[in-house]
């Protein structure tokens, strides 16, 4: 089982299963940890905003301009850590990734 180490919006840490080939958002929204994903992964709402642990940031694909535009408009944006989990496809290389759900806007 591939693992995701997740800190929810309440600061509680969890270990959940990461589903290879699916968006990170899909694994996170299956639980009630604060990832709403209102737009269903269309990169238009930012309700799947997470902070990626520093050790994992360089293992992620580059951010596209639409993701960057959405994130930079948020008051909770952290330049080095913020990502939309709908834009990250989970694969074997991300087994053990650590993310924190960002506070709601």
Give an overview in words.
- This protein has 105 residues and is α+β, with helices and mostly antiparallel strands.
- It has one domain (2-101): Ubiquitin-like (UB roll) (Roll).
- 13% of the residues lie in helices and 23% in strands.
- It contains two helices and five strands.
- It has helices spanning 24-29, 65-72, and strands at residues 2-7, 13-18, 49-52, 82-84, 97-101.
- A five-stranded mixed sheet has the order 2-1-5-3-4.
- The radius of gyration is 12 Å and the shape is globular.
- The protein starts with a strand and ends with a strand.
What is the straight-line distance between the termini?
A: 33 Å
Helix content: 10-25%
**Mean pLDDT, as a whole number?**
94
Label the overall shape.
globular
Structural class: alpha+beta
In percent, how much strand structure appears in the residues? Answer: 15-25%
Give me the side-by-side strand order of the main sheet.
2-1-5-3-4
Low-confidence stretches: none
What is the CATH architecture assignment?
Answer: Roll
How many separate domains make up the residues?
A: 1
Cα Rg:
12 Å
Order of helices and strands: EEHEHEE
Number of helices: 2
- The name of the CATH superfamily reads Beta-grasp domain
CATH-derived topology: Ubiquitin-like (UB roll)
The count of DSSP E runs of length 2 or more, i.e. the number of strands, is: 5
Q: What is the CATH C-level name?
A: Alpha Beta
Largest sheet: 5 strands, mixed
Short description:
The chain is 13% helix and 23% strand. It is of the alpha+beta class.
Q: Can you tag this structure with a few keywords?
A:
5 strands; 2 helices; Ubiquitin-like (UB roll); alpha+beta; 105 residues; five-stranded mixed sheet
